[in-house]
Fold ABC transporter ATP-binding protein.
Amino acid sequence: MAGRLPSAAPAPPAGAPPALALRGLVKAFDGKLAVDGVSLDVPVGSFYGLVGPNGAGKTTTLSMATGLLRPDAGTAYVLGTDVWKDPITAKRLMGVLPDGVRLFDRLSGEQLILYSGLLHGLDRPTASARARDLLAAFGLADAASTLVVDYSAGMTKKVALAAALVDAPRLLVLDEPFESVDPISAANIRSILTDFTAGGGTVIVSSHVMDLVQRMCDHVAVVAAGRILAAGTVDQVRAGESLEERFVQLVGGPGKSEGLTWLHT
Ligand SMILES: Nc1ncnc2c1ncn2[C@@H]1O[C@H](COP(=O)(O)OP(=O)(O)OP(=O)(O)O)[C@@H](O)[C@H]1O
């Protein structure tokens, strides 16, 4: 009897592994595809932007990539480790800022970062010293003893990012890190992330702000309706135009607000 064909398990990346490799990720909710076969390589040391319209599948993709949401098909590799076969090893390599951060907000900012460090296996003196360094770097030193529940939305993003950085991950996966963040804090976060990549770390960030992605990222992928429409270096993808113009060309969608004539006075 002929042997059964091996199941079509997604092949791990060959050669030196990318920081993050997505292979054939698929997810449907109630029979509707949210992510429709996403494959992507995020090179080590890159600052990678993931852009797409509302509902494109960015959060769903990043949730599957970080072990938060089980894919219907496909998998993700962090520096060659399969996130779904060896989640503990993969998660040790990653710092994650999920969408709609839910934090232990009855802790102070300092306690939250310290706690995150201890959970990641750091000894208390190291976690404590890093918590203080991170609070200073994010401009939160004065709010170190304030409960996170009393932080503003932007401060909450910053403390969550600090907690994701405390164990010096190799890969940072950030879902909308600039949402609710003022321009000065955004510049502060950008400079911390740029230093992180200059030191060999890798960042993948989802955002709607094309201008920011164009200035900040060296690579970008455009996602719409659960598929990657274009991916590569920012210059390759924008092809001589601004990223925003290219994004609109690729994604299309409604332009003028036709049908709203009743709004005109
Ligand atoms: N838990 C869920 N249950 C049902 N549908 C979901 C769920 N999560 C996401 N979806 C649907 O999957 C699709 C992709 O959503 P997703 O949140 O990944 O998009 P996104 O690109 O992150 O959007 P946005 O930019 O608005 O945050 C949407 O149609 C959304 O309604």
Notes: The two ends are 77 Å apart (CA to CA). The mean pLDDT is 91.
